[in-house]
Amino acid sequence: MSVTLHTDVGDLKLEIFCDQTPKTAENFLALCGSGYYDNTLIHRNIRGFMVQMGDPTGKGKGGTSIWGRKFEDEIRTTLKHDRRGVVSMANSGPDTNGSQFFITYDRQPSLDAKYTIFGCVVDDNQDSSSSTLDALESLEVGKKNRPLNDTKILSVTIHANPLADPACIQ
Fold first, then answer.
1. Secondary structure letter of residue 19 according to DSSP
2. Which of 140, 147, 80, 134 is CA-nearest to residue 105?
3. Residue 107 and residue 48: Cα distance in Å, rounded?
4. Which pairs count as long-range contacts for 105-108, CB under 8 Å and 24+ apart, including other chains?
5. Pairing mode, strands 2-7 and 50-53
6. What is the pTM of this model?
7. Residue 6 phi/psi, 5° resolution?
8. Where does the pLDDT of residue 125 fall: very low under 50, low under 70, confident under 90, or very high at 90 and above?
9. First-to-last C-alpha distance (Å) of the chain
10. Cα 81 from Cα 52, distance rounded (Å)
């Protein structure tokens, strides 16, 4: 299963790991399908580290799951923050997942076993997710690593893609 996040700076296609992290995938896909992420700010951006989004308040403190409460981690030892483009749930400690998520700009082994990895950024012949990730990383930021100019997820497209290439951006 995959989704495309349509942002102000381009499209990001994400492959979602439904088999490895079913509860997290269910939450993320349901939020995508309901329009929850539409017109939400990309609220945290740290070059060389990660970009964070998914908070409807735009402040980095809000957001909830489809169950109306925080939900448990799905940490898998086989999934690592070992490359650019790893997609993980943001949290404030163990078992505090809601709606916020982040995408890594580089390998981040210090995040392993602390955040549920549920997807990765993928490129195909019809889009250039890596270029969009580059554009996000180059955004100028101010206090609290917030982009100086509002940058948003405009909308999300969900794709049923059983033949998706499992190779993530390296």
1. T
2. 134
3. 9
4. 105/46, 105/47, 105/48, 105/49, 105/50, 105/51, 105/133, 105/137, 106/48, 106/49, 107/81, 107/82, 107/83, 108/49, 108/50, 108/81
5. unpaired
6. 0.92
7. -90, 115
8. low
9. 20
10. 15
